[in-house]
Design goal:
This protein is α+β, with helices and mostly antiparallel strands. It has helices spanning 12-23, 36-41, 50-58, 63-68, 88-92, 102-116, 164-167, 236-246, 249-252, 298-319, 328-350, 359-372, 375-385; strands spanning 5-8, 28-31, 47-48, 70-72, 74-79, 82-87, 97-99, 119-121, 125-130, 138-143, 146-151, 154-157, 175-190, 200-202, 209-213, 219-226, 260-274, 277-278, 281-283, 289-290. The strands form 4 sheets. An 8-stranded mixed sheet has the order 6-5-14-15-16-13-17-20. Strands 8-2-1-12-19-18 form a 6-stranded mixed sheet. A hairpin with a 6-residue loop joins β14 (200-202) and β15 (209-213). The two termini are 34 Å apart.
Amino acid sequence: MKTQVAIIGAGPSGLLLGQLLHRQGIDNVIVERRSGEYVLSRIRAGVLEQGMVDLLREAGVDQRMDEEGLPHEGFELVFDNRRVRVALDELTGGSKVMVYGQTEVTRDLMEARAAAGATTLYEAENVQPHDLDSDSPYLTFEHNGETIRLECDYIAGCDGYHGVSRQSIPQERIKEFEKVYPFGWLGVLSDTPPVSDELIYASHERGFSLCSMRSATRSRYYLQVPLDEKVEDWSDERFWEELKRRLPDDVAAKLVTGPSIEKSIAPLRSYVVEPMQYGRLFLVGDAAHIVPPTGAKGLNLAASDVNTLYRLMVKVYQEGRTDLIERYSQTCLKRIWKAERFSWWMTSMLHNFSDEEDFNSRMQLAELDYVTSSKAGMTTIAENYVGLPYESLE
């Protein structure tokens, strides 16, 4: 088999890259080790930055998002018995976010790829990149009992933190940066109406909580919990009662509870690898970076990587601009580190790091009080939350 761009991973970043390239006449093949059903079953983020919304429109997969997605012009910060609304549109000149589940984004991209007749090989085993630092890289893998060699010009590693792409780069050629937080998020998905029309980020002496949603009838809630907590120890009743304790009384009184349809605990960590490319392999999304979910940057950062690589490939194939290839990593990393900073800042400001009142808790309260009483502070939150502008290759 031959193609121009081989994409490892059929998650939203791989599918989005493939769709954008296809619309520009750049041939690509996606190789995914899981089944399509498994990819769609993964419950992930649901808050899309303005830039990602615009990129999905450019990819031609915006119809259902615009029909079913929920545009949000603000969100709330809750602390010290106060509720403060961050007016995103007013503070950023009209930018906003879109609440639309990652599963739905993935489904839209899968359907668009199928309609286009583009090739996606699911349940591909033993995927391995070769000759990455040559002019003729290729993939080998097993599919339907057959060993396949996929020759290509470039490889996009969209296969996540545990994927083969980053592991294929010699260890001495990269540097890893990591911060692990001493807590996780216990998340519950339920078919109940959201407690608020906008997201609520709540800092409380019992721990952080977040009230989010996937639609007008499906809610997503989170609680900060110690890393040693186990999901099976949290009944639905225990979760709802603890969430109510961490919310203002007027919000807790409106909370509609019900059976959970998904419950999990996710550890919080920050991670970046530099550089994000090796020869003709480009790392995209979680293969290169992880952010805490505070601030909803994970999927959106993957989209900005896709934007950079997509425009780079257009320059290569339509203008012969191979000189820009070496700029991929530094272009992506400019925006990544700013997003890492925002996620780290929001996490540090809103979570409990101690069971007792201490210097850090007083600093958190002072920080929240300052940024919410200053237009400059509120603008900083808003412009980061809706997403900083995509970096240009030139």
